[in-house]
Structures
1.
Amino acid sequence: MKQLNYIDIFAGTSALSEGFRQLKFNPVAYIEMDAEACLTIKTREAYHHLKEAGKLDTYYDYISGNITRDSLYKHIPSEIETSVINSEISDSSLKNIFKIIEINLKKLPNNELDLIIGGPPCQAYSIIGRHCIDWENDHRTKLYVQYGRFLKEFRPKVFVFENVPGIYTANNGSYFTHLKKYFRKIGYETDDRILNAKDFGVLQNRKRVFIVGWRKDIQFSFPELTPIVHNYTVEDILSDLSPLTPGQVINKGRYRKLPSEYLRQFDLSNGADFYTQHISRPHNSNDLKIYRLAIEKWNKERKRLRYSDIPERLQTHKNTRSFLDRFKVVDGKGVSHTVVAHIAKDGHYYIHPDIHQCRSISVREAARIQSFPDDFFFEGSRTSIFRQIGNAVPPLLSLALAKGIKKQFEML
């Protein structure tokens, strides 16, 4: 089978790409407007390149802090440098983006683009953010049109469009209707599903909409995906990491015991004998007292602490009638609730279940809940990294989808 080429638009950390990369799809370009996320993509591409070249020690030297990022990037070919395009996708930027993609395609033995993947920013479609969206003028509500311009320019056989379930009902359902009609108008049949990450090995209850589209001249369909049945819990991804105090940073740490069966089965602990970026944010004493109450209530009663139940001396907000679940403990004995980008702002919604640690989850713990492998290294500030993780498609979900997509490509 020929090599399958794809581009990832609105790429974020390249998490949606991760499953496709594992199955040897070839990335022609990543387009992402966040500069730090672009560095994360480039570093991950360095990992894939060095792994294929049998030189992972160089990558491990970098994430261990033994060499600089510039030294790492000297080991990657120029094609990787040009494949990561740090740009907003807009009317003014498309001409230049298309030109770079065309140049990259011409360098390949197969210069056809087979697949486009990507998930436009979802704030406009999320239920939480709807009250402040100007549906007629906010450019975020029309990003599917920008997505479509890539389809019209490169005519890939297939595309994968990811977003939040709120896209179904946004603006009373009219935007999803327009989106489907638009894709059909430019020559693509589509089908869509809500997929829950927890059904594919991710220890997180995370629902996302996936639209799979295909050119009208080929036989394709939404891939059949087989759920993974297991009894693993969040404790399986926390127990081998060192305990942390609030604000403690372990840039490189040794596992305190052998990886759990979950980590081995799903290949999250996958090569190096160390982990990185076990970074906890600091908390003030008032928040820590509330955290302790929340952990005790959850672990003893399996009930959430409501803000109105917090002693008045610890309350910092006057509103005790709405948004009462401001403090939420991650379920160590089950799967986590959804990790979202808000984790970049504070940790109140992602409290570690171990009362002896009494803090919010670390960068590495959040990454594991999202099913990132331990050798996935994030670039940028702590705030930026949490945002990148919260916005990401869980790689294990990406892998399940990529397997289904590839199987159908093999039958074309």
Note: Residues 234-391 form a domain with the DNA Methylase; Chain A, domain 2 fold (CATH 3.90.120.10).
2.
Amino acid sequence: METLQEYIQACAENGPYQCVLSAPSGKGKYVKTVIRQIGRAYQCENYTSTQVFHENLEADCLAGLLLRLMETAYTQLHAWDGTWEYALRITKKGKILYNKKKSIQAPPVKMTHNRKKRYLIEENTVVPPLVDMGIFTADGRVVRSMYDKFRQINRFLEFLNDELDKLNLARRLRILDFGCGKSYLTFVVYYYMVHVRGLDVEITGLDLKEDVIRHCNETAEKYGYANLHFERGDIQGYCPDGGVDIVISLHACDTATDYALYNAVKWKAKLILSVPCCQHELNGQIRSESFGTLTRYGIVKERMAALMTDAIRANLLISQGYDTRLLEFVDLSHTPKNLLIRAVRTGTSAFAKEKAMAEVENLRAEFGAEPTLYRLLTLSEHEKIPHSS
């Protein structure tokens, strides 16, 4: 082999499952292109310094695309077909360097029980928020000490992605992130929905801290995330214009989670994703003569109160027409915040609603529990609903 076309053909002839083109020649508009095999076709991910653009490619067009990109845009190509790893480089003097060796960097395509975990956002993808968070290096590799956070973020995206196709994706989705804080995950959600799924979404982050909101808006502008913006305010005073499809609430402290859930129900949000935090309210309330052993010991009472709080929240959401699940967010070894409430508005049966509410009433009667979400949902519409702290 002597020509660039022959080397490219050697890289492509066995149907590589991944190709990475890098080291831009200065003639193209992207900094990197990653081509992944999806079924019998390919998907191209073309990266700028802040964005990624996707396009589909037929399998028999792969060699032609690789040749064109190496002639016009890049000077390095790596490809893997499950058996071999191919490396191709064009030097500054135009010399072609080619190498083929047994693949040790990437796993084989066909694996059984030891299949490598596939993440919705894969390593070797340049995601600006993850780079700024210190989870990815500038070239898209996961920082070794941040793998737990990398897995946690992907796990959250899986919870979201599982429900997306049940929504009306033919129109713009409105998403509210309450108590967004520095909004690292908000930026990743926007990146995934817009740049990976190709959806039309508008995300609003809401927080009480003015400096945080200013920083987040500046960051969204830096990334070019046109439909991601942040506002200062309390969820109780927030009036959405045109409704809300998805409400996200991550680590809203104590009863702030209840206000987020209440407003999501009031707005008839189609999907709620909430990771509660600091469930202190019931710990100061619950007592029981029949089950005194559960409330006698401080540490037992504290943990039971936290679990009871979220179980009651889940039942109350069911009573409002939501198919509700309590899910493990990440392994216990990774973080203590390990429970996520996922609620999908499906219109549960009258029997399910009544049963869920009866179970809540039984707990209230036995333990003297008066959770905030219960109070908010059962208040008369003529009564004033107090603001969260």
Note: The mean pLDDT is 85.
3.
Amino acid sequence: MKIFFTLLTVLGTIVSVSAQEVDTLLPAEPLVEMADTIGTESGYRLFLPSGRLDPSSVYGPYSGERIASDSLFRAASPVLYIPEQMRVVQNIDWKFYLLCGIVFFLALLRQLFPKYFTDLFMVVFNTTVRQKQLREQLGQSTLPSLLLSLFYCITGSTFLYLTEPYFGMDGRFPVAGSMLLWFLMLTALFVAKYLLLEFLGWVFQEGEASRHYLFVVFTVNKIAGLYLLPFIVLMAYTGGDAQKIILKLALVGLGILIIARLVRGFQAIQPILRIPLLQYLLFVAAFEIMPVLVVCKLLVQFIA
């Protein structure tokens, strides 16, 4: 038994040595360059110099031609370069805090002056006999009227700022400067209109008619400030076609409010002044529409 294991060990040693000698004498295998478009004499090539897939590639003549012509693999198609753009992260946290501040301001007004809001909506959407009494009550509430007019200027300036990209005026000023500019413009128009109508009522001794007309104008302005709030929230966090649709809906609603203001204003002063509709429209165009258009044109030229 010992002799058998000794012979077996010697035989295994001889076989291993002979195998190593054979491996060292074998020629080296050629290197395969899988992605070489030109190829070398010592290796296989995958693509021809023209850029087409070589049918005699490492995949074999049939597989290489199949890969080159298959519409799924598209191996012989030109290389597609997809451009990459650096993602610029914009800090829009200020929108969140601004909207929270506007909503908080409105909630505070609603909590402090609930009766004023109730009377305001009754005057706008109700045509009962009590309207004269409600108008007198609203006219005596100076503080809530002033604060709600301030709310209208805030929402109006924010809405105008969000519409700047559609008029080619975005980026001219910082956010705070642009919004402050719109706020000052609305406030100036608000005060100028009030002083002008009061002056005309004093000059022509028609103070009651001017007060009634001012009440209608400022009431519609307050409703417009409330109306713009949800559109401001939507426009602040949308873009593209969705923002355009929201803007169009907001403008349609503002147009309806303007028409309602013209009708209500004529109904308020016509029993007192007994003026025809054409004269009223000329008054509105001369003392309301034209000054606003002039101020807007000057402001656009200044910003642009």
Note: Confidence is low (pLDDT under 50) at residues 17-44.
4.
Amino acid sequence: MSRAANPAQEALRRVIMARYPITQVVTFEEDRVEANLRHLTQNSMKRAGFWTWACTTGLVGPEGPVKDTRDPERALDVVAGQPAGVFLFRDLHAFFGQPAVVRKVRDVRLALTNTPRFLFLTAPRVTVPLDLRRDVAVMDFPMPTATELGHLLDRYVAGFEPPPDDDTRLSLVTALRGLTVAEASNAMNMAFYGKKRVDDEAMTTLHAQKAQLARKDGVLEFVAQKWQLDDIGGLEVLKQWFVKRRTLFEDEEADRRGLAPRGVLVMGIPGCGKSMCIKAAAALWGLPLFRLEMAQVFSGVYGTPEETFDHALKMMEAVAPAILWIDEIENAISADAEGADAGTKGRIFATFLTWMQEKPAQVFVGATANRIDLLPAELLRKGRFDQVFFIDLPDESERAAIFDVHLRHRKVDLTDINVVTLAKATKNWNGAEIENAVVAAMIEAYDADREVTEDDIFFQVGKVVPLAVTMAEQIKAIKSWAGQRAIRAS
């Protein structure tokens, strides 16, 4: 038998070489399983025929449909009577509630053992009943590789003028990773319909396909990318950390060498841009960003918190490469959890620890925290998060940059506004307070039907008592804790 040409064929080939008589293939891609099995049968098993079965069509072999085989028991009888062959049954698990079908599967397993006959069952999830667990092997069908998706993409963009350059093509393929062939085709139909070139909207459309997958499960929220690293004032150390890792998700060689970043934990003073950094990283890396809503996890609406959390992690694996954003992680996984939630949080924490250690490299975790001292030490060790960053209150130059970002973002003419003077007047302010002062000044100016002035902003500054004053003791404690335990983001 010749070596398979791709990971999907290789996985199926190994099952056949191992002589498993019955295997359940866990996948949504029935057609892709069929295509690969048919290819293997025709090219590597010359004396075997390829057969398919569904309750709507019955058994279909090399000579065409077999009469009266819509009934699964009758179809399995035909399988047992063939001298050789590869048989693909779709949705047989729907009949596992019938004792006679379960018994027939066990009988067929005995008949197929040590023969050139192999029965494959497709299902979207593991559905092997207890009575068959020792008789049926289970395999996860590999998702399409970057190479396969690249070939598919090339067919869609053939004839584009100008053709996508290597960087653009790599970014598009990365955006398609985690989608089935059918989903990728649908996404590209939407992204490129009526177009003859790749534009900025195409990437957004491809990410929207992944957003649809997450939206069906409720607890994962797709976050649109509207912030860039240049929209963040200061924090140069953290920004450079993201920039250096920009291409590692797109490079398969880096992935094989284990160089892809696993996650980052950003802690610091409230309102200083922790969440914005995660959003900007997603835009920089060209990856979809999903926020895990822990309140929804604990609500019980989608099942027990443990089941919901585990399902959300599996969904992230399905849409990878992607970024999982967990905001204020200390509220979800706390070392000081008490009362009724203590056991639940403990179990979720144990699940999260194991997943962070074993998760696919293509899922990056961006977590933020205000009180990192509440997090268990096990979560902070290397191997789970690549780095822990501390964001302090912005210094004068950073405050000037923040004023500049928010004013320019709102199309304010800076000719008569001195951001350095404003920065000097807002010592110990955080970024959120600066933004609020700018917005409040603009509202007042808008109400007076005129452009905002520097005096308008100074007037708003004088009305604010910053968080650094109202929460001085807590902020001092946060700085003290982070001083020896985290890398400064600035």
Note: The longest strand covers residues 117-123.
